[in-house]
Amino acid sequence: MSITPHDERFMAAAIRLSRWHLGRTATNPSVGCLIVKDGVIVGRAVTALGGRPHAETQALSEAGALARGATAYVTLEPCSHHGKTPPCAEALIAYGVARVVISVTDPDPRVSGRGIARLREASIEVDAGVLEAEGRQSLAAYLTRQTKNRPYVTLKLAVSADGMIGRQGAGQVAITGPEARAQVQALRAETDAILVGIGTAIADDPLLTVLSPGLESQSPIRIVLDPSLALPLTSRLVGTAREVPVIVVTSEEGSLSQAEGDIASTEMESCRAALEAAGVEVVHCNPYHPEVLLPALATRGISSLLVEGGAKTARLFLEAGLVDRIQLYQAPVMIGEGGIESPLDATDIPSGFAHTGTLMFGGDRLDEYERGL
Questions:
Q1: How many CA atoms lie within 13 Å of 309's alpha carbon, on the beta-carbon side?
Q2: What is the Cα–Cα distance from 12 to 138, expressed in whole angstroms?
Q3: Which is it for the CA torsion 121, 126, 129, 131, positive or negative?
Q4: Close Cβ partners of 328 (under 8 Å, ≥ 6 residues apart)
Q5: Alpha carbons within 13 A on the beta-carbon side of 177
Q6: CA dihedral sign of residues 66, 68, 71, 72
Q7: What is the H or E stretch that residue 100 is in?
Q8: Which residues belong to the active site?
Q9: 323 - beta bridge partners?
Q10: Residues 347-371: pLDDT tens digits?
Q11: Of 89, 136, 176, 232, which cross-links 115 as Cys (Cβ 3.0–4.6 Å)?
Q12: Could you tell me how far CA 85 lies from the centroid of its own chain?
């Protein structure tokens, strides 16, 4: 059967549904599934919080007997392997679905192509690649961790009209207005972890949590690049580490010379013990080598990372070529004397990025750029 406008319409709805639980399904992808019978949606679901149950089994359960002879629209190829739950491909077969429409084939070697093959072996018609670009965008974090062994990295910058991201010695400076800041809170809520450098952590004393009412429980893991363990015990990050996890990434053990080590190791050990006593996790992994750090974060189940603080940290990830998406907010305010220059503006976006859209939030403009997955 050829793909129809109806197929694209239902898949677009499934993709929108899949975004509901972004950043909240642990290591599993947030997948959307619709069961459609005679043009009517009879079952719908998104991967449950924590990653289980999967979308397909929930949607089939809702559809019940109406699933027989129906079409299932799934944003990611149904799993075919036995893990902590039975394969979704087998559930689709058991319920008697006649056709399965898929947006993205799963790169997981346990699944890739096998789910489709199993469905076809059961005489179920399968069409894959429907709205694939849109599906891949919604699954970007999962696909990046699967194919590149690292999280999907978003760099967010708010830049003043005179090209600044802050002011020296002024702490947090409001550059964008409330509408744009609310949008950033929504981005945090769908991201696994947020990262800043120690300079930003000290100068701004940020919380880095989700502040929007009703979304506070979706705050991401907070990560600070801190080579010498300088994060103050009095900081708001440390003070809230038992409520929302904080990871401090410090220099690798043994990276100092013997002379330096004799002097510094005792001090750093004392700082580490104090931070850990306050609930902070201290990780030894060169903080200024993101090509090493990102795979280490992926092993912890972190699939998406928001880099939000500090010109130096932004340059670090940009120069390493490890930014996948740039969200560039441009505001009409002026910072003036003492401003901290942005590492990036709309005229010098690195090669390989495509401009994917512009949105206005009050007087602030958001331009988004993405690399191909």
A1: 24
A2: 11
A3: negative
A4: 157, 159, 344, 345, 346, 349, 366, 367, 368, 369
A5: 11
A6: positive
A7: strand 99-104
A8: 56
A9: none
A10: 999 999 999 999 999 999 999 999 9
A11: 89
A12: 24
**What's the CA gap between 92 and 60, in Å, rounded?**
7
- Tell me: is residue 208 an annotated ligand-binding position: yes
- Looking at residue 357, its pLDDT comes to 96
Looking at residues 164-178, what average pLDDT do you find?
87
pTM for the model stands at 0.92
Closest CA to 71 of 26, 155, 136, 4: 4
CATH architecture of 5-142: 3-Layer(aba) Sandwich (3.40)
- On whether the CB atoms of residues 175 and 159 are closer than 8 A, the answer is yes
Rounded CA-CA distance 312/330 in Å is: 19
pLDDT tens by residue, 46-72: 999 999 999 999 999 999 999 999 999
Nearest to 175 by CA among 318, 353, 308, 313: 308
Q: How many CB atoms lie within 10 A of CB 15?
A: 23
Contacts of 327 (CB under 8 A, 6+ apart): 154, 155, 156, 157, 187, 366, 367, 368
Residue 234 marked as a ligand binder: no
Q: Give residues with Cβ within 8 angstroms of 271, minimum separation 6.
A: 229, 230
The edge-to-edge listing of strands for the beta sheet with 71-76 is 40-46, 32-37, 71-76, 99-104, 125-128
Q: Inform me whether the pLDDT recorded for 109 exceeds 90.
A: no
Domain positions in the chain are 5-142, 150-371
pLDDT digits (tens, 9 = 90+) for 327-349: 999 999 999 988 999 999 999 99
Residue 33 in marked binding region: no
Answer yes or no: is 367 a known binding residue.
no
Spatial neighbors of 7 by CB under 8 A, at least 6 apart, are 73, 101, 127, 130
Alpha-carbon gap, residue 244 to 194, rounded angstroms: 12
Q: Is 214 exposed, middle or buried (0-12, 13-18, 19+ CB in 10 A)?
A: exposed
Name which CATH class applies to 150-371.
alpha beta
